[in-house]
Design brief:
Layout: H1 24-50, H2 54-60, H3 62-69, H4 83-109, H5 112-131, H6 136-164, H7 170-174, H8 176-195, H9 202-208, H10 211-221, H11 228-233, H12 237-248, H13 254-268, H14 273-276, H15 283-299, H16 302-315, H17 320-348, H18 350-375, H19 384-402, H20 405-416, H21 419-450, H22 454-473, H23 486-490, H24 496-499
InterPro entries: MFS_dom, MFS_STP/MST-like_plant, MFS_sugar_transport-like, MFS_trans_sf, STP/PLT_plant, Sugar/inositol_transpt, Sugar_transporter_CS
GO molecular function: monosaccharide transmembrane transporter activity; symporter activity
Subcellular location: Membrane
């Protein structure tokens, strides 16, 4: 049996009885919740631009500024090698890493909406502190608060979108998170392009503008309904059914509501959801959804480009304004990729996008490494033709990532976990994602300095491995109801040997999550 295919005879419970219409209420709910992605995206885009601005460097990192002005005296690869400078970027993700577990508890006990509101408030305070920062300590504190906001919103928003969306269009609507992330990156680069010309406080405007998406999401979240899944999980059955009828646009929701109740009853028997993730029946979700995909999403090398695109382009010999302009082009490629994925992922499936894009991304990373090995690092400006070629390669890489590992890295984990471990599983997804995001942010510039073009060959090898991982281990989840995903693993060529029928667990009781 090929790769991640599942048996044709797999029988789903009541999926064929689900009914839905696309309602304005449903669209509003998804659009407001998806604003959480704009918080994540704006920060991804703004930090690299700000750290390339001369006014910002002169105030907080004068040593880096002097090195930048004297780049001909050293290898271009090392122009921005400064661990405090990279800590400015990575501190946000350390904050998100710590608070994602608090977000998990709040998301399960109080609902997805509560976590979204907490994320917006924390992000708002962090943006204000960064805008008025007078020293590095204020910068780091502001970044940590932004990280708390990211921890809450990235934990809750993908779950919210997956639970609100009908099974047949779940991929499209869940990817609103990635679309708003990409739009946030694009807007941040456009803001940086404009504020770079405002001296000496343009960087403050870039950092402070993060309050806009925070306010929009916070105010909008006050009017959001809680998801039917969460309401049922909290025992609010009547309210849960009313919301389900409203978002589905029909009163004929008996089959879907019955599945939600069944899933909730199983969830209530789980006293220790994190421990339950270790049981045999949840082994595929743990390995693929909680660990593999979020780790691989960062190891593609995409975020190293997003964090430091203006810095990277300046190292290639572009001027400050030109480097920010090039970053706008690459973030535009991400938006186009996200739109492509939204339109086609429910037709062609998750596996197709993962595997095809991995092949492309491998080729682009190899091409980038070879070009840099031959033409870069001698303290001279690159020929214009080579510079244009590198921008095109990076744009193509961004487009491939933007329709695959970017959106699907959030979509697939959010739809794999059963209700009883969903909040716990998503918190591990965010935790793993933030660990590797922070490591890439902290280590990329020093790796670029010491490994040089070899860092891109490492990324190429990792992309090849992760594409193979998806081919063999991930079953296709398109149009499968979220409460019935577990059946795919029971019929998968590899995972069925581990999960069996889902009733036998070695060392743990799958119902109570207690040791035998």
């Amino acid at each position: 049996m090929a790769g991640g295919a599942f048996a044709d005879g797999a029988t789903l419970k009541r999926a064929h009885l689900y009914e839905y219409k696309t309602t304005g209420y449903f669209i509003f709910s998804c659009l407001v919740a998806a604003m959480g992605g704009s918080l994540f995206g704006y920060d991804l885009g703004v930090s690299g631009g700000v750290t390339s601005m001369d006014d910002f460097l002169k105030k907080f990192f004068p040593q880096v500024y002097r090195r930048k002005q004297q780049h001909l005296h050293e290898t271009d690869y090392c122009k921005y090698d400064n661990q405090i400078l990279t800590l400015f970027t990575s501190s946000l993700y350390f904050g998100a890493l710590i608070f994602t577990f608090a977000a998990s508890h709040l998301t399960r006990s109080k609902g997805r909406k509560a976590s979204i509101i907490c994320g917006a408030l924390s992000f708002l305070f962090g943006a204000i502190i960064n805008a008025f920062a007078m020293n590095i300590a204020m910068l780091i504190i502001g970044r940590l608060l932004l990280g708390v906001g990211i921890g809450f919103s990235n934990q809750a928003v993908p779950l919210y979108l997956s639970e609100m969306a009908p099974a047949k269009t779940r991929g499209r609507y869940n990817q609103l998170f990635q679309l708003t992330t990409c739009l946030g990156i694009l807007v941040a680069n456009l803001v940086n392009y404009g504020t770079e010309k405002i001296h000496p406080w343009g960087w403050r405007l870039s950092l402070g503008s993060a309050i806009i998406p925070a306010i929009l999401m916070g105010v909008g979240a006050l009017f959001l309904p809680e998801t039917p899944n969460s309401l049922v999980e909290q025992g609010k059955l009547e309210e849960g059914r009313k919301v389900l009828e409203k978002v589905r646009g029909t009163t004929n929701v008996d089959a879907e509501f019955a599945d939600l109740i069944d899933a909730s009853n199983e969830a209530k028997a789980i006293k220790h959801p994190f421990r339950n993730l270790l049981t045999r029946k949840n082994r595929p979700q743990l390995i693929i959804g909680a660990l593999g995909i979020p780790m691989f999403q960062q190891l593609t090398g995409m975020n190293s480009i997003l964090f430091y695109a203006p810095v990277f382009f300046q190292s290639l010999g572009f001027g400050s304004g030109t480097s920010l302009y090039s970053s706008v082009i690459t973030s535009g490629a991400l938006v186009v990729g996200a739109l492509t994925s939204m339109a086609l992922v429910d037709k062609f499936g998750r596996r197709t996008f993962f595997i095809e894009a991995s092949i492309e991304m491998f080729c682009y990373m190899v091409a980038l490494a070879i070009t840099l090995a031959l033409k870069f690092g001698q303290g001279v400006t690159l020929p214009k033709a080579i510079s244009v070629f590198l921008v095109i390669i990076i744009c193509l890489f961004c487009f491939a990532y933007g329709r695959s590992w970017g959106p699907l890295g959030w979509l697939v984990p959010s739809e794999l976990f059963p209700l009883e471990t969903r909040s716990a599983g998503q918190s591990i997804v965010v935790c793993v994602n933030m660990i590797f995001t922070a490591l890439i942010a902290q280590c990329f510039l020093v790796s670029l300095c010491h490994i040089r073009y070899g860092i891109f060959l490492i990324f190429a090898g990792l992309v090849a491995f992760m594409g193979t991982f998806i081919f063999f281990l991930l079953p296709e989840t398109k149009q499968v109801p979220i409460e019935e995903i577990y059946l795919l693993f029971q019929n998968h060529w590899f995972w069925k040997k581990i999960v069996g029928d889902g009733t036998n667990d070695d060392g743990l009781d799958g119902e109570k999550g207690q040791p035998n």
